Structures are given as C-alpha cells and as structure tokens.
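Record pair follows.
FIRST:
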Amino acid sequence: MLTPAFRFAPSPNGRLHLGHAYSALLNAAEAERVGGRFLVRIEDIDTTRCTPELAKACLEDLAWLSLAWEEPVRFQSRHLVEYRAALAKLDALGLLYACTCTRREIAETADPARRDAEGQVLYPGTCREAGHSRDAPHALRLDMQRACALLNAPLTFTELGEGEVIADPAAWGDVILARRDIGTSYHIAVVVDDALQGISHVVRGRDLFAATAIHRLLQHLLGLPVPLYRHHALIGDETGRKLSKTAGDRSLASLREAGVTPEEIRRELGF
C-alpha cells in the first residue's frame, strides 16, 4: 500500500495569510495523523504575478510556523514541459482548439444568463468551429462536449466527511487549459503534479470544490489516479469575508512583525 501523501500548494503572488496557515497546518496535521507524507509545492506558473522573492517568503513563513516538509520542493515553473506533454495527449484526442478571443469580445458575445460555478459568463464557443491557426497568439480551450462524450459513466469523487459526489464538468463550458501567455493552466498543472507526486489526499479550501469537476475530467482523460478530497471551510475576517492577498489582508509576516508568535497562531487556528 502506498504511503498517504498530502500537499500544501501556495501561489507566490502575495504574502501568506491566516487562511494559508490554516490549510498548511491542516495538511501537516492530517499527514502526521495517518503516518503520511507532507509536501509543499510552489504553484508559480503565472510568471507575470509570481516572483522568486515571494516564493522564498512563502517557505520562510511556513518554516516560521514550525512546519517541516519533504525536500525538494516542487516549483511548477520548472516543469512546464510535463504540462505541455499532458496537453499534447488531449490534443491528440481532438479535444483542444485554439481560441483568440479577448475578454472584451467574450463579454460582448456571451449570454450573461449562462454562468459557471464561479459566476463567470460561459464562453460562447466562438472559436470552436473556426479552426484558427496556432501561429498567432492563442489560448487552448477544452471542447467540453467532445470530452464529456468520452465518459462511459458519471464522474464522481470522494469528499471526506460527505461521501461520493457527482462531478459536473459540463457546467464549466469550454475551459482554458493553456493560457496564451504561459502555455498551460492551473487545472492541467495541478492534476499532473498530484499524480506525479503521489498525492493521495487533496485537502484545500472550499473555494476550489466546484473546480474538482474539471480535475476529475482531466484525470479521466489522462488516465491519472484519483485522490480523496477534502475542501475545508475558509478563514474569514471579522465580517466573514474570505481572507485575500489582493485585498491586503494582514499577512503572516505582518503578524510576526507585530510580535505574534507561531504558537499563538496555532492556538487561534485550532492546532
């Protein structure tokens, strides 16, 4: 039997806050509880927002919390060739097409009443039949209808504490699997990495629950193993709003500078 493996996978596009600390501590605690492995992965494929300095700061914040993880840390930016190989497999199945639409063009042509699980308007499929050349800048979208036609049974996943959940990737429409600027996407990178790293338990925030449908579809299409899932509640501020890097919520670094100790943070978060 394979050793259980858990991972905390931050994106270094800002400093970590209490919500990140909770997720990291929970993954480490669960790994220890079952005698498993705890890994840290730096999800830095977005090179326009992620920086080496912020990646270094993420690891420093986790070490300050007295967390220990397996080395080496996996940096996604160093493994783009593996994500492109996965995309090539999907392309060989005839499931990808080039999309040259801008956000403005999509907003002008999409039906505002049709939205995905995150509330964004669904892509109207403008480029699906256009057969655009891939010489010009483009994104690669998944032809969701063709992809779902390859399923021989409903997709499901196990949500720990809730049981079997039916996944509905079609609700997301033709998602982008390779951004025009970086040549890949979070969805591709995360399923490839979880498989390569032997992740048995994906423990992450509830805000990613709906996206699991996309990940289950990609796992099926690429022949990848299916981990168990647990989507934990999000840490909010005093008003209940989810903590956010972009909103300027207090970082672990600022708490440390204010004299807060790792022990105090652990107690506050229930660890």
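SECOND:
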Amino acid sequence: MNTPSYLLIEDRLIHNYQSMCIRMEPCKVAYSMKANPCPQIPAVLSKTQAWFEVSSIAEAETLQACGIAPDRMYCGLVATSQAELTKLETIGCRAFTFDTFRQAEKIKYLRYPSNKILRVRVNDLVVDSIGFGMPYDTILQNPDILKETDGLSFHISDHTDMNKTIAAVDRLVTLAEFSPSVTFLNIGGSYSLSGNDEDYRILRTHLKDIQQHTGLDIICEPGSAIVDTSMYALTRCVMVCEQEGFTDVFIDGGIPSGMMRKPGRIMNLTGETAVRRHFYRFFDTTSMKKLLFQMHLAFRIQEDDLLCLTDYGAYSYCYSNIFHSRPLPTISVIKEEALIEQLV
C-alpha cells in the first residue's frame, strides 16, 4: 500500500452532515471548504442539500468541477483582491463577505449583482473569537452600510459558552432591524457534534424564535465537525529511535501530507503486539526536528509498520504539499462497511 494516503468514509461524512442539520435546526448548513478542500468531499456532499463556503478560487473551482450549482456557494473570506473577486464571479459565485468599506467598494465593481455579507466583529463578546469583522460601533456610526447589505455574519472559533454565541447572534439581529435589505444571518462555523446537548437545544430554541419573529434565514458553516471523523490517514513507520528517554517514531507523512496534529487514536495495521505503555513521539522524515504529536500507546511500533491515524479529516489534507518532492497523498472513498476490510 502506498503511503501516505487517506480513507474517506462516505456514509459517515453524510451522517455527520445530516446530524449537524438536526443539531443546528433551523439553520441551512454549509460545509466550510477550508477544513478539507479535496474534491471527494463535495462530490459526496452533493448528494445532500449542503451549501458550501469557499475562501479561495481553487475551492470554488473544485466545487465547479464537482457540478455544484453556483447558488450553493458563497465566499466567506473578507480579504480578497479585485482579481480574485472577479474570478470567483466568473466561476459563478454571487455572494461575498466584507468587513471594511474598501472591500464593500470592490464588490460593487463586479459585473453581476451580488449578495453582500457584512461580517460583524464579536471578539468583545467572545474574547478568543477571530478578530475580523467591522466593529459594532463603526456600523452604528455608519448605518448606510446596512442599506447595502444583504446578510450579516460573525465567526467564533469555539462555542463552549453558548450564552456568548447567543449574545453574538442577538447582535446581528439588532443590526438587521436597521435595514429591510438584510434577509439572512450567517452565524459562522466551529459548531460541534459532541458538544453539550442541552446547550444546543437552547441555541435551537433561540434561533427558531428569531426566525419566527423576523423571517430571517439563518446559515451556519461548520467544517471540521463534518469531516474530521469521516477520514483516516495511513502512514508507514520509516525508523524508530530511542533517545532522551522517549521512543521516537519517524513516519513518511507529517508535513507533506498534513499529518501534523494529534489523531483520535493510532492503530498498528501490521499487527499490535501488546507491551507496557510507551511514550511515543512522532516526527516526519522530511523535517526530523519538528515534533508532530506525542501519545502513550500500549503496543509496539517497529520499522515498516503500517499505521492508521483516525479522525484526521479536518485541517490535514489541506496542508499537504510537495516538500522534498513528495507526491500529494491519494484519497480512497469507501463505505463504512468496507472500513475493516480496507484496513487489514
């Protein structure tokens, strides 16, 4: 088997998307392509009602090649050049996000009418959220910007405190009241399928109440929660070295294939020989000083062992490159029922 490579579990990806639709009702759920832009993912999700958020021309071209209708995609990146905007428009994108007056002007220069989505800053409400977005006070001081706006959005990287998420949502609702041209809200990504069920029930109730009283459509754009558990990575142990009290494992993945974070778990597909728990450190053969991750494991890893890293769909393949002339990893689409067979 050639390594590194990835296994995309088709029915698990669809299940995760459908579960997110239930969890985030009444939102329309868009998949954030930056989490993993490989073409196999939108090809599978095209069988659902998924929308897609893109941050680059390449992501939009991937959707186009997969036959995704342009009205199912929108650009969520606030920093784009005029040339990029024009190319995205050529591909068919008709909705663009902005957070500065200059960026709003760029969208006006496009040939076709486009939906304009104003990203609102919320890091005063959620301290660790992404700092992009037009400040709330700036919008209040320049209310005419809302007359040119079709949608409002924010982005929060971690929804562990749902009260803060709801406060951010309410900020958008307050601004939407200033302009009848605002017809939808985009409440960002980073929502979880494993988060507290009661917290998400409260969020759903609040969103349904907003939709009932305002008529606004609501969109969310998770990425990692949909794709992460849907993809496994396969890599091979090239060398094992005992040093400084650690067992260092050098794999043929790492930086070129995006294997640079801790997986859900590791399986030794060559055969797991039980041993006393070892503290393993994992490195990549193309950058042997860079620690990728470390784990305690109760089995031996030896040279040429084939390893499977689970829950590796998010922010892995998208970091792949050809450093040291390595080829990009292959991706195989399989069914859940074929997973065990594929791994043995």
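COMMENT: The CA atoms of residues 141 and 149 lie 15 Å apart.
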